[in-house]
């Protein structure tokens, strides 16, 4: 029986640049960083969460979603997305929208990493 999500992978062209975006821009913590037989194994994660995001070196546009409106390969949840949005914007994070948007399910905004990967940020609607 499966018990947990261990890793998700985001394909990047420059692991150091990606680490700066995900750690300093989005505020994730660096977890693992060591050379492996197939390349550098670099992960980040949300503080307190066991799930790790592998920042895997790959050719440009390798894991990008199809078109506008499609969720990114990574969806992160926030308790206060509008507050987090302002913090991230001050850190230099680029967003597709000028500000978070309200939807029936809550609030959302799409960040874009240095490789053009869409990172979906969500806040669930409070009932």
TrEMBL record:
Residues 4-124 form the VOC domain. InterPro entries: Glyas_Bleomycin-R_OHBP_Dase, Glyas_Fos-R_dOase_dom, VOC_core. It comes from the Bacteria. SUPFAM superfamilies: Glyoxalase/Bleomycin resistance protein/Dihydroxybiphenyl dioxygenase (SSF54593). Pfam families: Glyoxalase. This is VOC family protein. It comes from Streptomyces kunmingensis.
């Amino acid at each position: 029986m499966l018990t947990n999500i261990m890793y998700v992978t985001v394909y990047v062209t420059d692991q150091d640049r990606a680490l700066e975006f995900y750690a300093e821009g989005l505020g994730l913590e660096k977890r693992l960083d060591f050379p492996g037989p197939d390349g550098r194994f670099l992960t980040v994660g949300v503080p307190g969460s066991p799930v790790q995001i592998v920042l895997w070196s790959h050719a440009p546009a390798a894991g990008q979603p199809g078109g506008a409106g499609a969720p990114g390969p990574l969806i992160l949840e926030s308790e206060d997305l509008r507050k987090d949005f302002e913090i991230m914007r001050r850190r230099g994070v680029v967003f597709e929208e000028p500000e978070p948007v309200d939807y029936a399910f809550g609030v959302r905004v799409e960040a874009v990493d240095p490789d053009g990967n869409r990172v979906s940020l969500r806040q669930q609607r409070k009932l």
